[in-house]
Specification:
Length: 1524
């Protein structure tokens, strides 16, 4: 090109001078550009429903970016002018979703557009660039175009342009990516879709390209004009073609950066469609990924019928390339690839392509077969049978007719010299080959992977089997494990490859990735010691394995950013390809110190295990491929690490001295993360709508109101014979028909193609659906003993295969009998749950596991997982598996050795929780023997021991070495029998009858032994997490009994005392106190808010008061101090509410230091180690794990006192006005920090000031209760005597509505108690705030009654002559429904009268009374026949009931309509009385309504109606009102 100079000689005209003169084309082009009107760089005000516009409509933001990924469509304000590049800048992205910004053009006017959820839904003339694909009206027209938009980052700029020739161009950061489409009409609006990760963009310009870019475009124009005159036209006819025949060749011209030009290629059957697999394929083939991926079903059962072909013929010189995604080791032979002249639409697909005897050329192994016969035996040095996952295979049909094959991008030469002009590519997924994907040359990441593979293919030992290696290689051999020299940007390798470090660890916290120099052998331990740490950063060392070769890997900043072939342990979780698969896996690596060691091993069965200080953390993953490299990421605090030589394979939880297991070594079943009942989890593979959370214990169906299927989940390992897999239903919706389905399948999760519903599977599957038992999708029997469609929230479902092959179902712990027989014995079966229809969320219960005597009769519910001991006050039991000389008594609470001096080992029935003490008392000794009791902890799971107690256990605990065992024998501490420490403390040999000995595992992973309650200090360190207590009745000690109790026996029913009253609710004086139910609160640490907080927070009063000063969010707070165990953290009160907003405060705990936390706008955006209480739900890392927990926090009025407590079992409790709401979450880490979100209505809270002295909770409760007793002699509820500033009733709208209705009744105020604090509202929010139970006892003898939930009580004044105190304590409580017209007469007589019982006396009418309500006419005795009226006067009868579910029925309490004078809305109301009834003055009888279903779950229909004839037997206590 010549040199251009621009000169403005005439206004409105721009002249261009160059060495070649001024061209007419350029002059016209430039003049037109100078005269154009600049288009407004703004967005149209009409947009997607989640879009918010700002900055003069230049900035668009997608609302709710964490909860929603679509509905983010925006268009330009005006249509694009030719050559204008409409450019936006990516401002914000989130990592919650896949996919990102999409951009394009549309001919649809935004003013009248019904916006779809995403840009790909636009039709009627729309071209969209999505990822690296181009779509027209939602259908792909070009694959692998330009830059991948999903890989762009914040700050990158993306533009779209229609050229003057009607072509669509994409611009990325000022670079033209070439023509994406042609033939575009005029009048197009720019389209930007804030999809997936992209949440905010800003329009930066809408103008033609800059001068430099203009030169490039002009060159393209000139080339196009030259080609149109020269004969190289793609779209038109060539002047040299003779007769005008179109060019049948293909011109793949990458315009401006890799985009292929879209001109239609004429002639033959060639089209411009993307090269995909044809929809017609072999019988076992499943297509996915827009027909780019093909996979053979049932790869372990079938080896052929896996033929696929392309959707169109190959063009000349067009590369067809596939990537091998999955192989299996079962078969011989592997993938075959080639070409055929057969049209896939007409072909009857053979079992294998080499069976075809015409028009077919295939590469098989390393040879070429033509029409099924070998024509070249040694075509190339590579064999297709030796390729591995990730390798690429390609072929090309040259214009000369020659056929070439490519292995990892390397041309293998001419396979056939002459092939027909029209051929289709064909792939045969045969034998080992299971899954392949079509790849394209233009994709940069694929090219990078292919180049890496090429270098691997050129290595001398590729494809050859590796020699067998010993379990622990000799460090002096060349095979020694060292770090590879290729490492992260900020890392360095020293000490001849043994040590890796970050030299500038105080300046940078990442780019410290190092890999091993060679792949790990099976069972080879890679272990490093942390040499140096720095305190500046958060986070620490991460370790794992990867399939990537370090020689060719572009090392990321952190290894968890790698999205393929990588497994990493980070913190206390495990990530696979950047996604968390285990939340709470093992010891937290962030807490390690210099000198600690971490390790990893891949076992022969493909399972991956991690080690911390030599202690196995359990299986972390399965099906990890061989030949993986070890990875260490020196992240954050970790600054230097050294490889440890001579590391033997530590004892793994599944290792056994009994010999190899009988299970398949390739199965996860052989990896007993299954070493205990608690290892059962949901598998990481699941249906598309399912989500696994809570450490694999909880499964839920997302979008439950728009999706009803595709939510199948499966157990992480196969079930053992006699093992129960039980789940509890936690959430349901009433939108759909049908509900949960449950069963078992013999299909491994890795081989299961998850269908819409599990009953669609036609092999090796047994399911219970409703009442039908189905095998392989066919109904075997109907009317089984239970109906899954009738189960409700809280119901438990279990399934178990017996040793004889029978399948049993359990509903709420009750065996429903044999569902079907003939399940293949010895074959692996997995539990399957289909979250279908109404069922939305389930969790695995702790009763899942091998069944023994202690579990067969347990009645474990969602809120009470721990075993309940039959002995009062004892929460521990002994396991039924024990030594052969042991007999268990007292239902597992006592153990006696009946013979000899040994074989007396016994275990705890369950794993011990952190800091949980297991303690026994010595009952008997026999002095003829020497030695004494041994006690300790073991990783051996007793459920895995043989059923016969005569085998499987060592004679003494010191010889128990099949699993890691720590024990105290005498005064010596031993580990697996080896002496670790002498003179630990008082010798166990000196203990005698009455002495107590206990053991516990503390939160710092140490074992402590207690003798007679005295802690002897740490006996052992680095104790594993999942351990059982174990003791040996050895020598002198022949009998012991358990004396310990769990800190948390029943989280659902045992509540701590109130902080404002000793009485939790009505009738508490009749309860029997539960030992240990009250947590031992430690002296309070003074708490204050941290200076690091949300941007709208202002702290005052020495950081004890926090206020949100603007907006409704950005109000996050944490405390500066961690929350100690057993200390109640209280937000003294909610100071200020703003009714202008919706929602309110949420609170919880966060498990990592908040000092450098970058606070998001709301707490629900925190996704790392966070437990949050919001509304009436519990969230863990932003996913809901529990519903209907405690009161709805959005309804808490001003003055409410909220508190948090983490008990000794690491369980989180919520306190509301001093009432413990039970366990909200488990496994809370140490340390944890209280977290508060001042959101919506809640604008200010304050913490209590440091108290001058500590007052015990119990003393305070007693003081408050005595005051309540002096007032009225009854202990009913915490609100009988609330703190004057903590009255939860003062803002209850429902109580205010009921009060307004009471005022309409014009009843004299003299009938009611003047003190309004005795009026109680029983709406859902109020009774939950008080912590009311549903039922209580009252009177002598005590009798049950129900609280009137849903009603509002107004306390009545007591008559002076009544002994109120005595009546309240000794009389029973009952209810009486009546009519509005009978209220005044009843109150006038101060007792219930005959004729006021509405079942005998009320007939509703529809007249409207003078006070604005419709009143049923009172039915007096005058309306009865004379004989009945006489009997009514002689025998007065009053109907009562202990529950308002009966007395509140409309038959007894007719509804009246009234208009609320405040809101002017119409409501319906009912009335009744709460009364005290003298015992013995009434008769209990059946209900008289003819109801069939139970009216109240606590009271039988035969005892729900009380009749009294004693006029002095009732005492009016309160007026009840219910408004609808």
């Amino acid at each position: 090109m010549g040199q251009f100079a621009y000169q403005e000689n005439i206004p409105g005209h721009l002249y261009c001078h160059c060495s070649g003169g001024l061209t007419n084309t350029n002059a016209l082009f430039l003049n037109s550009q100078a005269a154009r009107v600049k288009m407004a760089a703004e967005l149209h005000p009409c947009s997607g429903k989640l879009i918010g516009l700002s900055n003069s409509n230049r900035t668009a933001q997608r609302n709710q970016p964490v909860q929603e990924f679509n509905h983010g469509l925006v268009l330009s304000r005006e249509p694009l002018k030719d050559r204008d590049v409409f450019t936006v800048r990516i401002d914000k992205k989130v990592n919650s979703w896949s996919g990102s910004i999409e951009i394009g053009v549309t001919s649809l006017d935004p003013a009248g557009l019904d916006f779809p959820s995403s840009a790909t839904g636009l039709k009627g003339g729309s071209w969209i660039v999505s990822g690296c694909s181009v779509l027209r009206d939602g259908r792909s027209v070009l694959e692998e175009y330009g830059r991948d938009l999903d890989q762009l980052s914040e700050g990158d700029r993306v533009g779209i342009q229609r050229s003057t020739h009607g072509e669509l161009h994409l611009w990325v950061n000022g670079q033209d990516c070439g023509a994406a489409a042609s033939g575009l009409p005029t009048g197009l609006w720019a389209v930007v879709d804030l999809y997936g990760k992209c949440t905010q963009v800003t329009v930066v310009s809408c103008e033609p390209p800059s001068l430099a870019e203009r030169d490039t475009e002009r060159e393209t124009v000139e080339e196009r004009e030259g080609s149109s005159s020269g004969g190289g036209s793609v779209n038109g006819n060539s002047s040299d073609s003779g007769g005008g025949t179109g060019n049948t060749g293909s011109v793949n011209s990458p315009a401006g950066g890799g985009g292929a030009r879209l001109g239609a290629v004429t002639g033959g059957m060639l089209t411009n469609d993307a090269l995909l697999f044809h929809e017609k394929c072999g019988t076992l083939i499943k297509l996915s990924n827009n027909n780019k991926t093909a996979e053979r079903r049932r790869p372990l059962d079938e080896f052929n019928n896996g033929v696929v072909m392309t959707n169109r013929p190959l063009r000349h010189n067009e590369m067809f390339e596939i990537r091998i995604d999955k192989l299996v080791d079962k078969w011989s032979g592997s993938i075959e690839i080639g070409v055929t002249t057969h049209n896939p639409n007409n072909l009857d697909y053979p079992a294998t392509m080499t069976n075809l005897r015409s028009g077919t050329i295939m590469m098989s192994g390393c040879g070429i077969l033509t029409n099924g016969k070998g024509t070249r035996r040694e075509y190339c040095e590579f064999s297709l049978d030796e390729l591995q996952e990730g390798d690429h295979i390609g072929l090309m049909h040259k214009a000369s007719g020659a056929l070439h094959f490519y292995i990892n991008g390397i041309d293998q030469g001419v396979a056939a010299a002459q092939t027909p002009a029209v051929v289709y590519a064909v792939v045969d997924l045969y034998g080992m080959a299971v899954k392949v994907t079509i790849v394209h040359n233009h994709n940069h990441s694929d090219r990078l992977r292919r180049n890496n593979a090429i270098m691997r293919a050129l290595s001398p030992d590729v494809g050859r089997p590796r020699p067998a290696h010993s379990l622990t290689p000799d460090p002096d051999t060349p095979d020694r494990l060292l770090f590879h020299s290729n490492c992260g940007q900020k890392a360095a390798i020293i000490s001849e490859g043994r040590t890796a470090l970050r030299p500038h660890a105080t300046d940078d916290f990442n780019h410290g990735v190092v890999l091993s120099g060679r792949p790990l052998h099976s069972n080879e331990v890679f272990q490093v010691r942390i040499d140096k740490m720095v305190d500046k950063w958060a986070g620490s060392i991460e370790i794992g394995v990867t399939t990537h070769n370090p020689a060719y890997l572009q090392l990321p900043s952190t290894m968890t950013n790698l999205r393929s072939g990588t497994w990493m342990m980070t913190g206390n979780g495990v990530m696979h390809n950047g996604t968390t698969i285990l939340d709470e896996y093992g010891h937290n690596l962030d807490r390690l110190k210099a000198g600690d060691t971490v390790g990893v091993v891949r076992k022969e069965d493909g399972s991956l295990h991690f080690f911390v200080n030599g202690v196995a953390q359990g299986p972390a993953a399965w099906n990890v491929p061989p030949s993986v490299y070890a990875v260490v990421d020196l992240y954050g605090q970790a600054a230097q690490a050294t490889i440890m030589d001579d590391v033997d394979l530590p004892t793994l939880p599944e290792d056994s001295s009994e010999g190899p297991t009988v299970m398949s070594p390739s199965s996860p079943c052989s990896v007993a993360g299954g070493n205990s009942a608690n290892d059962l989890r949901f598998h990481q593979l699941h249906g598309t709508n399912a989500v696994i959370t809570n450490g694999g214990r909880t499964a839920l169906r997302q979008n439950c109101r728009s999706e009803f299927n595709d939510a199948i989940v499966i157990s992480n390992r196969c079930l053992r014979d006699g093992e129960l897999f039980e789940i509890v239903i936690q959430k349901m919706v009433d939108r759909w028909s049908g509900s949960i389905e449950a069963g078992v399948t013999a299909i491994r999760p890795e081989e299961l193609e998850f269908p819409n519903t599990m009953t669609d599977i036609d092999y090796d599957t047994w399911m219970l659906s409703g009442t039908a038992i189905m095998q392989d999708g066919n109904t075997m029997r109907n009317n089984y003993g239970c109906d899954l469609d009738t189960l409700t929230t809280g119901s438990r479902i279990g399934m178990m295969r017996s040793a004889t092959g029978d399948l049993h179902y359990y509903i709420n712990g009750v065996d429903q009998g044999v569902a079907c027989t003939g399940l293949p014995p010895g074959k692996e079966v997995y539990a399957v749950i289909d979250l279908y229809g109404q069922c939305v969320q389930v969790s695995i219960t702790s009763s899942s596991g091998p069944q023994d005597n202690s579990l067969c009769t347990s009645n474990i519910t969602e809120r009470s997982f721990p075993i309940h001991s039959p002995v009062a006050g004892v929460a521990h039991r002994l396991h039924s598996k024990h030594g052969k000389n042991v007999v268990l008594l007292g239902e597992g609470c006592q153990a006696v050795r009946v013979g000899g001096y040994a074989h007396g080992i016994v275990f705890s029935a369950k794993e011990l929780k952190t800091d949980e003490l297991f303690e026994v008392k010595i009952d008997e000794v026999d002095d003829q023997w020497s030695g004494s009791l041994h006690m300790g902890l073991t990783t051996l799971a007793p459920p895995e021991l043989p059923s016969c107690p005569m085998s499987g256990l060592s004679p003494s605990l010191t010889q128990l070495r099949s699993k890691v065992t720590w024990l105290l024998a005498g005064s010596e501490v031993r580990r697996n029998g080896l002496l670790q420490r002498q003179n630990y403390g008082a010798s166990l040999d000196r203990l005698t009858v009455g002495n107590r000995v206990g053991v516990k595992r503390c939160s710092d992973d140490t074992m402590h032994v207690l003798i007679d309650g005295e802690d002897m200090g740490p006996a052992a360190t680095a104790v594993a997490k999942n351990v059982y207590a174990v003791l040996d009745l050895y020598g002198r000690v022949t009998a012991v009994s358990i004396v310990s109790s769990s800190v948390l026996e029943d989280a659902g029913s045992v509540k701590a005392p109130s902080l404002s009253s000793d009485s939790c609710s009505e009738g508490e004086e009749d309860r029997t106190p539960v030992e240990g139910g009250e947590p031992a609160l430690v002296p309070n640490t003074v708490m204050a808010f941290l200076e690091n907080h949300g941007k709208n927070i202002q702290l005052s009063h020495e950081n004890l008061t926090a206020a949100r000063v603007s907006s409704y969010n950005q109000g996050l707070l944490v405390t500066a101090q961690p929350l100690p165990r057993q200390q109640l953290f209280q937000v003294l009160c909610i100071d200020r509410l703003n009714a202008s907003w919706t929602s309110s405060l949420s609170l919880g705990v966060i498990g990592h230091s908040p000092d450098r936390l970058n606070f998001p706008s709301t707490a629900c955006c925190l996704k790392r180690s966070v437990w949050l209480l919001q509304r009436d739900s519990v969230f863990h890392n932003s996913l809901k794990i529990c519903e209907n927990y405690g009161p709805n926090l959005d309804t808490c009025p001003e003055g409410t006192v909220l508190g948090l407590l983490v008990d000794g079992n690491s369980c989180l409790h919520l306190y509301v006005n001093g009432m413990d709401q039970g366990v909200a979450a488990q496994d809370i880490p140490t340390p944890c920090y209280p977290l508060i979100d001042l959101y919506g209505q809640c604008e200010q809270v304050r913490l209590p000031p440091p108290p001058p002295f500590q007052t015990s909770v119990k003393a305070r409760c007693q003081g408050d209760m005595e005051k309540a007793d002096m007032v009225d002699g009854i202990k009913e509820s915490v609100c009988w005597m609330p703190h004057p500033e903590v009255n939860p009733n003062k803002t209850c709208e429902y109580q205010a509505l009921c009060s307004r209705f009471k005022d309409l009744l014009t009843l004299p105020d003299g009938y009611f108690n003047e003190d309004a604090k005795y009026n109680l509202c029983y709406c859902e929010s109020c009774h939950k705030l008080r912590g009311d139970e549903s039922y209580y006892k009252r009177g002598e003898p005590p009798r049950d009654y129900a609280l009137p939930f849903g009603w509002c009580r107004f306390a009545l004044r007591s008559e002076p002559h009544c002994d109120v105190s005595n009546s309240f304590k000794q009389w029973h409580i009952a209810y009486h429904g009546t009519s509005v017209g009978a209220l005044r007469r009843t109150l006038d007589h101060a007792q219930l009268l005959s004729g006021t019982s509405s079942i005998f006396s009320v007939s509703p009418v529809k007249t409207e009374g003078p006070n604005g309500y419709s009143e049923p006419e009172e039915n007096s005795s005058n309306s009865l026949p004379d004989r009945d009226r006489e009997r009514d006067r002689e025998v007065p009868r009053v109907q009562l009931s202990p529950t308002m579910r009966y007395s509140g029925l409309e038959m007894f309490a007719p509804k009246v309509q009234f208009r609320d004078p405040r809101s002017h809305c119409c409501h319906q109301a009912q009335v009744g009385f709460q009364v005290c009834v003298r015992p013995g003055s009434y008769k209990v009888g059946p209900q008289t309504l003819g109801a069939i279903e139970p009216l109240d779950p606590r009271f039988s229909n035969t005892e729900i109606e009380w009749i009294t004839k004693d006029q002095g037997g009732t005492l009016l206590y309160g007026l009840l009102i219910r408004v609808e």
